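Progress note, project year one: complex with MU-OXO-diiron.
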Amino acid sequence: MLNPKIEKALNQQVILEAESSQAYLAMASWAEVQGYEGIAAFLYLHSDEERMHMLKLLKFINERGGHGIVPALKQPGSKLKSVKELFQQVLEHEILVSNEINKLVDICLKEKDYTTHNFLQWYVSEQIEEEALARKIMDKLKLIGNDASGLYFFDRDIAGLSAGKQDGTDKAA
Ligand code: FEO
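Model obtained:
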């Protein structure tokens, strides 16, 4: 049976993962409208992954005798100045998610909930990969600077940057 304190903290994480999915969906739509097809495809996929992160948590809470709560949708921002600003936001968001996962792990240790602690290790690994990928992308964008042709190739090649991180299949299942 899930400790109510852990259940509450996990449901908070459900909210954050759902918000992540919405935020990346809004970014994908912005990129698509700007004509960045590769970036849009990358972000649509990323949004789907975040939904799977949310679902995995929700199901775990229910399996452990708690109640996974589906949160209300908050409208994410839809105006961005540049691709660089977009990915800077992705990186900052992933760092925030990692911090929240770490806090959850900490609560589990304090409450001696080793089952949830074990479950969360998947998220710990996932966050290492997601942050590394976002940093790799930002490094590329810094190299490109304001070069339009560089951005053209970045948009064409972004799917390849995630190689090794994900193959588009659902790791969260
Ligand atoms: Fe599910 Fe990218 O955090």
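The longest helix spans residues 4-34.
Helices lie at 4-34, 37-63, 83-110, 114-144, 148-161.
No further modelling is planned for this target in the current period.
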